Amino acid sequence: MSIRISPDPQVHNAEMPDPELNAAGKSRAVREMFAEIAPTYDRINRLLTVNIDMHWRRFTVNKLKDVLSRPDAIALDLCCGTADLTLEIEEHARVIGCDFCHPMLVIGNEKLSAKHARNALLTEGDALHLPFADASFDAVTIAFGLRNLENVQCGLTEIFRVLKPGGRAAILEFSRPVIPVFREAFEFYFNKILPRIGGLISGSRSAYTYLPRSVRNFPDQKGISAMMRAAGFTDVCYHNLLGGVAAVYLGNREI
Ligand SMILES: C[S@@+](CC[C@H](N)C(=O)[O-])C[C@H]1O[C@@H](n2cnc3c(N)ncnc32)[C@H](O)[C@@H]1O
After folding, report:
1. pTM of the entire structure?
2. Is residue 207 a part of any domain in this protein?
3. Alpha-carbon gap, residue 59 to 88, rounded angstroms
4. Is the CB of 208 under 6 A from ligand 1?
5. How far is the CA of 175 from the centre of ligand 1 (A)?
6. Ligand 1 centroid from CA 170, angstroms
7. Ligand 1 centre from 67 Cα, in Å?
8. Which label site among 30, 82, 83, 123 has the fewest CB atoms less than 10 Å from its CB?
9. What is the pLDDT of residue 204?
10. Are residues 25 and 33 in contact, defined by beta-carbon separation less than 8 angstroms?
């Protein structure tokens, strides 16, 4: 299962609006920002997290193994970007990766082809208006995407809508370290060091100052759990990763 996505001639390199300052047009600003950093996105992720991000994605998929092992299971990986999580899921079940940033999908599709990933396909779509019928998927995932949505609560409601009764959502997102001294050290790295390295390699300093700001302005572990419950999820829980630098949130749709 594989589709080709051709390079988009309309990739913008022009001055980018700031996604945080521009709440009403956040979707457009986010899409343009990821279009600009797409070519270096994977390299910077590996460098800035010393590869830990790949372990986090694997941990996320492990929490879905029972639903992914159902006969004919199908998963949706939202905000799939360059398809790292899609590829992890693909080892267990059929999966559709969905993102609204064409240049990220082009790179993702090259990775799918290189790995002969026959259980996965990528499609262009907006997480806030998904082109899928109600109750379509056994599992829905979103890694480092929820924070970027123009309306987080609407995003959660949309995830719940496309999940089958008996299905499970897994959300991987940056969060707040819970251990005080570690928190201060991490925040120094995240706010001061990371934007310089990310900016130098990608050529977009603004994208890597947006990252820590967007995490700061995002609800913490308890806040996201409450929003998931409000969207209809049951059995909501979370697992802190690396002392809360990131967290995986799980929620079920009741049968
Ligand atoms: C930080 S990247 C994460 C990519 C990937 N999931 C990963 O783990 O590396 C966030 C992605 O979310 C996508 N995104 C943000 N808002 C979106 C929306 N409303 N609909 C679809 N994709 C969106 C961006 O285009 C970008 O590719």
Report:
1. 0.90
2. no
3. 10
4. no
5. 17
6. 15
7. 23
8. 123
9. 82
10. no
